[in-house]
Amino acid sequence: MSRNRIVSGVFLVAGLALAFLGQFYFTYRREFWRDGILFWCASLILFWILWRRLRQRGPARRGSGNRQRLSRWLSWAVKNPWRVLASLGGSGLSLVVGWWARGISPRAGFAGAFWAWVIGVAWFLMAFVPSVSVKQTLLNLGWRLRRRRLELAGLAALLLAALLVRAVDLEHIPANLGGDEGTQGLAALELVGPPMGNPFSTGWYSVPTMSFLAYGSAMKVFGATIAGARTLSALVGTLTVLTTFLFARQLWGWRAAWIAATLLAFGHYHIHFSRLASNQIGDGFVVTLALWLFVRGMQSRRSLHFAMAGTVVGLGWYGYFGARLVGVILAAYVAWLFASKYRFHLQAMSRRYGRLLLIFLLAALVAAAPLLLYYIAHQDTMAARASQITILSPGWLAREQEYSGLSGTRILLRQFLKSVTAFHYTLDPTFWYRPSIPLLDFLSGVLFLFGMVWSLARRREPGFALVLIWFWLALITGWVLTENPPSSQRMVIIAPALALLVGLGMRWLMSMGERVFGKGQLLHWRDIAILGLVLISILNLYYYFVVYTPTRIYGNPTAEIATNLGRYLGQQDDDYVVYFYGPTVMYFDIGNLSFLARDVVGVNVYPPDEDRPPVDLVSGGARFVFLPQRLGELETVREQFPGGERMDVHSMADGRLLYVVYEVGPR
Questions:
Q1: pTM for this predicted structure
Q2: Do 290 and 561 form a contact (C-beta atoms < 8 A)?
Q3: How far apart, in whole angstroms, are the C-alpha atoms of residue 144 and residue 165?
Q4: How many Cβ atoms sit within 10 Å of the Cβ of residue 413?
Q5: Residue ranges of the domains in the chain?
Q6: Three-class DSSP category at 663
Q7: In CA terms, which of 41, 78, 318, 458 is 20 to 30 Å from 384?
């Protein structure tokens, strides 16, 4: 029997075995139906490969080609044993860490597993680093720095300005600490230990705990304060300006890069989320870095770029859920290339990029392996958050129809319209931001439409197609298919795409102006573009810092109460117990209040009509805190504990009463 027949027979038997195994899970192990889908998918892949083998003509020639390809791979492996060892060792170490983390006792700590995973990912990447001397690398780097010193100096100035508008007075801008910020800050401090918690699992709202590790580590450096908790977001937001510059420069050149990076650096939407202690800001960084590396790899065909892009995609799984869309964006982009450039000619595509795309996929799996193994063991957690917010969940459409009286088609159309008008008309309905203007300022909104039309007109070009795929996939999955659009926190991934589209609109308008009016006698169109960028930047900075910040609207109405009270209690150097008369409006263990008053003992006091056991009052010092809704109970406490001091706290935004503190010393 020929070798080709043996190989084909192996594919046939393995495909049948996997199909039967998948059906076994569907029939007899119904609770593990996801495993059945996995086995069936593997079976279909094997049958597809078998079909491709059998339909090709000339078995002898095919066998010869396969042998030549195998021979080339073996020859490369013999010549590069250290690279083979690095790729196998790194991927194996990542898998071992995943299995290891599932059996570690939480009391033992996960520091060893975490660093072993870091070494495994780095080891895998080392397999694709080109063999160059250190001296030659330094010479090339020095030459590049000298050649582009003006561009680098300008870019450094832009990044410094971007960091300044993101990092100045983080303790008080935004003035309120959001409840989710405080909850994530507490989770971060708890995870960094000691001992270190499990970074390869999920926690609050099924969010992967790796992002909590990042914020907790940052607070160890910058302090466990509001500013310390927010500093990492400011740094990540600034790095996103850099990666947006690199991505735009790779596709459209330096002019488009400067415009897009400047627009993102001073855009009020991105500035706001760069100043919050929440992991959504990482989405834009992950997508721009991954797309830049992938585009560089497609143009250079260097395996290192594909390996790094895949690693970034895999690492994105450890952040906010929006970053997981990056892999889908790249898959859709490859499918577009396959359909348009190669016209469905799989062999041409695979010959040119097959090995590189395989490296990309393997790198993503190596980076995400421990978390994926966790999801296999805890299958309900992977889609738990998505099932809570998606309109595709069972019963959502029926409930919405009953509540609104609209047909299903009208409801879906409303979802779409609210999403696409978020940049010009519809306002963010959530307290994650809740600005009084759309997510784009007036001028940027106009330029955005120009950029969208120009991109659609040139959709056959790879750069424009990639941005369109990015924008529309994010819009549909992040807003159209989720409840309550346009919720700003779910679409931070789209902020760099907005800057790119606005920048492309500005470029198109400049080119049209030059063609219609000429290059100008008194003022060059480039100067007009610079003036436009300055005006847009001023508009955004003025709105965010002068108009929006004093309103203290971020974080919902209880955030101002929790922030003021938490700061006050955190500054008291005593062991007074706090009796909080806030339920059922607000509770003492809310995230932002708990973060700011971590060492304070607090007790929720429920209304008298609540069926709750009475609160035992201590004999030591006490602070009774009353929300306005419960202020009528103050007299009862004053009669029981006379001689205390009363302090009324009002909002700095509108003067309304926030809460009253009645303080009684030790008895």
A1: 0.87
A2: no
A3: 29
A4: 12
A5: 3-79, 125-129+153-551, 557-664
A6: strand
A7: 41
